[in-house]
Amino acid sequence: MFLTPRELEIYIDRALEEDSISADVTTSALIPSHIEARASLIPKEAGILSGLDVASAAFKRVNPDLVFTEKLFDGERVQGGEVVATISGSMASILTAERTVLNFLQRMSGIATLTGLYVKAVYGTQASIADTRKTAPGLRLLDKYSVSVGGGRNHRMNLTDGVLIKDNHIAALLGEGVSLSQAIKQARAKAPHTVKIEVEVETVRDALAATASGADIVMLDNMSPSEMRSAVDQIAGNCLVEASGNVTLENVAEVADTGVDIISIGALTHSVRALDISLDYETHNA
Fold first, then answer.
1. Within 13 Å and on the Cβ side, how many CA atoms surround 152?
2. Of the given ranges (74-78, 122-126, 190-194, 214-218), which has the lowest mean pLDDT?
3. Alpha-carbon 32 to chain mean position
4. Annotated catalytic, 53?
5. Could you tell me the fold of the domain covering 5-118+273-285?
6. Known catalytic membership, residue 44
7. Can 200 be counted among the known catalytic residues?
């Protein structure tokens, strides 16, 4: 994963604290400490798994004696009804951790599954599917990890990962008398030499101007397929071309056919539907 063990621990602790697991009044009132259980994680629908390591770590953070056994692994496709992992040990501990674990696993698997659908839709073209920074606050590393599990690529992880000159940057600079070309040259002069410069444009003319001014990547924002194809044809390999804005599963293949190199899609993470996964129990007395 993208996280160190300590970073993962912090993510999990924050989620468990949110649920106040030390004061689970329902479980404390109803479940005797001697009851042990065996539970299975079972998706109710097909998808791509992501987050099993997080699930295991969360269970063990609640109770280190719980035994988590993976039957499948992140990145594998699963059918509805398949057992992907089992957990055994204190039933009270499993119940206390259940919702937090499912929140992680369902969201992460939903992201991986949706990404996989987009990747499949552009198969056979040169386009790669990428995410954006439109992630759940505080969960970016897990969101982006799940995109990679689904076969996608990661765009900037944070604001240090590259210069991205967007429409609002350009609007602010134009008010100061700075042109697009001057802005690119200024970024090139001031940014570290290891950092790439990307420019968001809304017209073919601006795409060509950005390329001529030395941009490494040109992002075609909300352009029609015909405009994208025109830009790609004229840029002719001088820089990478990214398409973004209003891309859906229904139109992504058409976007890919324009010849763009990258298609960035905020919906992979900002409005994903969780994969339906349940935790089913078998109980026995210790």
1. 30
2. 190-194
3. 39
4. no
5. Aldehyde Oxidoreductase; domain 3 (3.90.1170)
6. no
7. yes
